[in-house]
Amino acid sequence: MDVPCVRVPRERGETARRALADADLIADEFEITVDDGALYIPVTDPDAVSALDLEEAADGDVEIVTREVDERETQTTPADLLGFDPSYERLGDVVLLDEDDGERALEIAEAVVDSDLPVETVLNKASKVKGETRIRDWEVVAGGDEGGDGSGGDQPPATETVHREYGCEFCLDLAEVYFSPRLATERHRVARQVEAGERAFDMFAGVGPFVIPFARRGAECVGVDVNERAIEYLRENARRNGVEGRVTAIAADVREVAPKYEGWADRIVMNLPHSADEFLESAATLAGDDCVVHYYDIQHEDDPFGPGERAIRAAAEPEYDVTVETRRRVRSYAPHELNVCLDVRLER
């Protein structure tokens, strides 16, 4: 079967394999092969691989190729057991379902647990994202306290997991915080722009998926969120990743915090797509003399970038010269709606 693979010299193969494993990009259902002095590592997402610093990690001579590789005979997938390919997401040792039919959810959950996936718990979405903190309800379908709320005395709740992304670890409880694994590639794209010594401010930081990799690259970071539990996890994740000395975590409305950091930021992240425009005045307060803002928005496909750009200019001009450096379609959000990012430079 033809599969996208990372080709790397054999002597550098383990370094590349570790980097791909940390980013959860290895296609485990296929064999890693050696041929003519090169190691071929099957991968799940070639575009995400392109964003990794594998050239540096493996000392150059790395490329993505399509190659015929064998399937792993010992790997049993949920699709093997079900006879169809179910839709699910993995987050650490948790699998996430979005099934309206309870019986179908249970059938998929049992197949996930019986497969060779390294999974402890299967959750099914029990509500839409709701409220200011964007959390949702979950039903524990398999693992943990099956059918219960996941509470287990001194044991961590079934909804808590440790997610690994591009070499960073994030501990989080899905029942108490918002987190989307689908944005891993986008977060890494932004993190690669960060340089040591920068001052970065995440206005809606959550458990730190932007803050932690920024700090690992040597930036001084402030992360703010109205969700106190998210801020507790952010502090824990800073410790886990050895960057607590470069991270300040604040549980508050960022509009109350911004005046204390007036003119401070070299880089600002605004990942609150449905309502980030309501916080642009605070972003303008935070921005230093030369600041890059990563502004996330959800808009109709006919004009996905215009509303955000106009809102930024209205908030920042004439005090700042506004330059849109990148207009990026991150993903489809709903029929005819796109989740987009504007990378905007503000120069006083």
Task: Describe the protein.
The chain starts with a strand and ends with a strand. About 2% of the residues have low confidence. It is 25% helix and 32% strand. Strands 13-12-11-14-15-17-16 form a seven-stranded mixed sheet. A four-stranded antiparallel sheet has the order 2-3-1-4. The protein contains eleven helices and 17 strands. It has 348 residues and is an alpha/beta fold.
Layout of secondary structure:
Layout: E1 2-9, H1 13-22, E2 33-35, E3 38-42, H2 46-51, H3 54-57, E4 63-68, H4 78-82, E5 89-91, E6 94-97, H5 102-114, E7 121-125, E8 138-142, E9 160-165, E10 168-173, H6 184-191, E11 199-202, H7 211-216, E12 220-225, H8 228-240, E13 247-251, H9 254-257, E14 265-270, H10 280-286, E15 287-300, H11 306-316, E16 321-334, E17 337-347
Parallel strand pairs: 6-7, 11-12, 11-14, 12-13, 14-15
Antiparallel strand pairs: 1-3, 1-4, 2-3, 5-6, 7-8, 9-10, 15-17, 16-17
Keywords, separated by commas or semicolons:
17 strands; 25% helix; seven-stranded mixed beta sheet; four-stranded antiparallel beta sheet; single chain; alpha/beta; 348 residues; globular
- Outline type: globular
Radius of gyration of CA atoms, rounded to a whole number: 21 Å
- Specify the structural class: alpha/beta
The parts where pLDDT drops under 50 for at least 5 residues are 146-152
Largest sheet: 7 strands, mixed
Task: Give a brief outline of the structure.
By secondary structure, this protein is α/β, with parallel strands linked by helices. Helices cover 25% and strands 32% of the residues.
